[in-house]
Sequence to fold (125 residues):
Amino acid sequence: MLRPKSLITSLTQSNSLVLVGLIGANLFFNIIANSGFKLSATSSNWRGFISWQIIGNLAGFLAVLTLTGLLHHLPLHVVYPISMGLAIIGVQLVAARMFFHEPITITQWMGSLLVVGGIILISKQ
Fold:
């Protein structure tokens, strides 16, 4: 198992494309899963509810698979905060703001910046 001094160090190694791809895929599937659950919750009929539940759960399963792939290359204490932090930011900015046009307050923007700062601090050892 790779034990990098920081995420930056590990990304400069030979498996950098794999890691970037897994992080991007994990973020993508987290956004799709949460968007699917939101669409399921607001569906006006059972067919929409079930369809979006299936899509959300399938995307969630794929997110777990990409998380497992990341854990193959990096330690848990690095992978978990990065994947969860990016998921929070991705769902808030992409799904909530862009797809569902939900307002984001200044306090929520500040919280997002703190999450980004936390990701940076945790990824450095």
Notes: The CA atoms of residues 4 and 10 lie 5 Å apart.
